[in-house]
Fold:
Amino acid sequence: MREFDESSITDAVVARMAGSRDDRTRDISEALVRHLHAFVRDIRPTPAEWEAAIGFLTATGQKCDDKRQEFILLSDTLGVSTLVDAINNPVSGDVTETTVFGPFYVPPPEFGHGDDIGTAIEGLPMLVSGHVRKAGGAAAACAVVDVWHSDEAGFYDVQQMDKTGGLAGRGRFIADADGAFHFWTRRPAAYPIPTDGPVGDMLAAQGRHPWRPEHIHFKITARGCRPLVTHVFAQGDDYLDSDVVFGVKESLIRPYVAHSGGEAGGRTMTGPWVSLDHAFVLDDKQA
Ligand code: BEZ
Ligand code: FE
Structure:
């Protein structure tokens, strides 16, 4: 058959892929074509609208470089990242819940317990402490804890290298024999995801704000455990119910506790500071 119409084109495309050498590739390709064609039948785009859609995807690709990943932002803001995360990391007992990775991770330099990873960024002093254990109960001794967060204006180091002069507000800690770690940094802030690209235009067109609630990212790995990628969000933040990337989970919201003066984390404090303490549980059953 050579000629196709609205009712025959979908099966024709699917049939063309029957010779795929890999079953998974064939299944994914067939589902893609069936869902994409159903979407087009549903919205019935005009040629101008379809051209605009292709222009949007083209602009999304053109906005990407080694520092900017507009397709991750698109996946995040359409809830796809959270859906993929939910499919791959279903809630399991008291294992710490996961959330989106985001586009701002880079492998961090290693620090010692009690070090300050925020010397090159602005903000209120913040003491972060945590314990890592396995779901089975044992401490995750020597767990590798990577952390990263924004400064008080909501910018990551990788967005402002000219200001920070290098990586800042991120570090790697090796948990001790009890699975414990602690470090000093500067309090981050709620921030808007970058809006100077097609995803920003999309959010505006959809009548959405671009904000994420205040959080600190953690990526924790330990031998025999499933890697954990998560955040700890600040209790009371205005954007917890409307995170633009749908990353918030109730179990990941913790108080960022305000203090003034006193002894903490090996320092004598004279002014205001905040602390965060959180216990992380790794999945050691399905590593
Ligand atoms: C982040 O938390 O770093 C982030 C996550 C998704 C999109 C943009 C930023
Ligand atoms: Fe973030």
Summary: The pocket of fe (iii) ion (ligand 2) is lined by residues 102, 104, 215, 217 (CB under 6 Å).
